[in-house]
TrEMBL record:
Superkingdom of origin: Eukaryota
Biological classification of the source: Eukaryota, Amoebozoa, Evosea, Eumycetozoa, Dictyostelia
Residue stretches making up the Calcineurin-like phosphoesterase domain: 80-323
Region Disordered, annotated ranges: 23-58
GO molecular function: hydrolase activity, acting on ester bonds
Protein name: Calcineurin-like phosphoesterase domain-containing protein
Organism (species): Dictyostelium firmibasis
CDD domains noted in UniProt: MPP_Dcr2 (cd07383)
Amino acid sequence: MSRVQILSKLFGACQSKINYYNNNNNNNNNNNNNNNNNNNNNNNNNNNNNNNNNNNNNNFVETETILKKPILKFNKNGKFKIVQFTDLHYGEADEYDLLNLIVQENVIENELPDFVMLSGDMFSSYNIFEKEKYLILWEMVTRSMRKRNIPWSITFGNHDCEGPLSGREIVNMDQSYSNLSLTQENTDPNIPGITNYNLKIYSSDSDETSVESSLSSVMVPSSSIFIFDSDLPQCNESGSWGCINQKQVQWYKNQSDQLGNIPSIAFVHIPPVEIIDLWNENMVKGDFGDKESCCYYTDESEFVSTMVDRGDIKGLYFGHDHKNDFHGLYKNSIELGYGRKSGYGSYNPKYLEGARIIELTEQPFSIKTWIRNVNGELETQQTHYPNSYSQSPRYCCTHEDHKDESTWTLFLIVYCSTIIIISVIFYRIKSRDQNQTNSIIEL
């Protein structure tokens, strides 16, 4: 089914969904008004309690009561399935938001994952002007997970914190919205970024089902998920943005040591420059539509090389470049992979929106990954072999932590200035010679 056909089909369903949600909201408002009128006849204590409940209902729509945060664990078959939604871009337009709901609903209904990772740019915050709008959108972002009791976590992209809510306010909103949120906030002022944290995945034979119940016994994780915040406002003296800092890499090394170097995977929003090396030098599956990849250089932070050296992180997944969805094995050590753009806001890939699915096997540890698109279909990604015709320059559209950036910039300035000076001198010499020739001719 083509993009035009699927969009026509989805937009046809959108109007009925809009009416459905509007009718539900009107009914809820009428019910709340009736309840408030009835409650006014009760005593003052009841009135206060009911007012508090009404405030909660207005702020947190459709949230369920969950007393304990769930733990992540492999199922009885030793599998753990993750859905990665990336670049949803809620808040771009109402019709796109409804289409995003359909993407999430169809993917989750078909996959029924153990965990959902929202790997950045959940919001088009540059188009959101009221704080209250975030709560409305967050109800939509998390609806498909909440109705199935599936836990999730977030990390930030470069557009999430561009509106009236700060990054920490977004984290607090998420954490307070549902106990299914496993998002954690970095409170160490020495470590850049807000969403740097680690989630443990426990063995399939573990009896615990919640964080609280696991506190009474010592549990050793079987695997883990590292989550990094690449939405850094300033990566170096030049003010470049969107990288992983050396201090974040040191944090990862410390966490890895504490966990005993167990097999893990990781998520970040902006891809590292090694993704271009992967495309140029290895067999990969998927598309490289954004040839000028907005990655970041890792010369100073040694982000990917540290993972390769330590050997515990077996897969690193990201988004940001909407037209890219390829993945492959880098250095015979770690899989690097783009997610599939999940939302309809901003610019779109040539393929249908969807999600990357990542399935972990506990023993022996392995990773299997695929794409499921908006209409619920599994996609067979094309295989790309390295060749001279499809080579991409090792260049990022942002400069981030490239250690040679200032030297390279100075070189370009000196080079261009030299060319200009030589051109001026050559022009003057040529003009002088021409004048002398003209004088001789006149004589």
